[in-house]
Amino acid sequence: MELSERFGWEGRSIAWGRAGNGPPVVFCHGTPFSSRVWSRYADALSSDFTVYLWDMPGYGASSKHPEHAVDFGVQAKAFAALLAEWGLDRPRVVAHDFGGAVSLRATLAEKATYASLLLVDVVAIPPSGSPFFRFVQKYPTTLDELPPYIHEAIVRAYVANASHRGLRQPELDELVAPWLTADGQPAFYRQIAQYDEQYLVDNERTVGELDIPVKVVWGRDDAWIPTSTGKRLADLIPGAPYVEVPDAGHLMQYDAPIALASLLREWL
Fold first, then answer.
1. Where would I find the H helices in 109-213?
2. Domain AB hydrolase-1 spans what residues (predicted)?
């Protein structure tokens, strides 16, 4: 599924796409990824649902202007504005990684309304981050100046580490491509430098207010966010079941596609 549409919001250009017929389902990607992680699933579901994909500002095919903030708060506002632009009142929302915090804040702080929420290996509550994140936050502009071939090696190694089974070369190429352009390299480090865990602290305090069906799904071999965080998140949300998928890391979309597709269809 291609992102053939554009939404202008506060000087940003947000790439998005829509396909299919039926109840609306909106997918939210994480970092350092794009809507490509959900593209195959959107295609498969478009026979029964109207599916929406979008790239957050600063990611994928959306604009990457250095003066535009890309933190959780900004992304949540952008998501709420995009839902209003689409005229969606209560869509089903499916979120991965950073998209979890964005979709949670959009409903808890920006008052976006959903019919349900499926959270897959999400960044949502503290603790989060990694030694690499802390290094980038300490030296963001220095890394902007890396020779492109060294930057590419870093991004490839970082993204590849999110998969438990190992990404095929075309999959890895597709995921890293947006970060290898002239505006993509500084955007990659900028989104890490602006990562603010205070938004996750706020989420932890307010997720108990959710009054919609929520399900938490986690890869049993997620090397980025431990299963203990997923279980704790589910415990904080009233009535939220927790499911672990074996032989799956942080990129469950690639590690366990059949299991994830089955869980998606069952939930939707």
1. 131-138, 140-144, 148-160, 169-176, 184-193, 198-206
2. 25-261
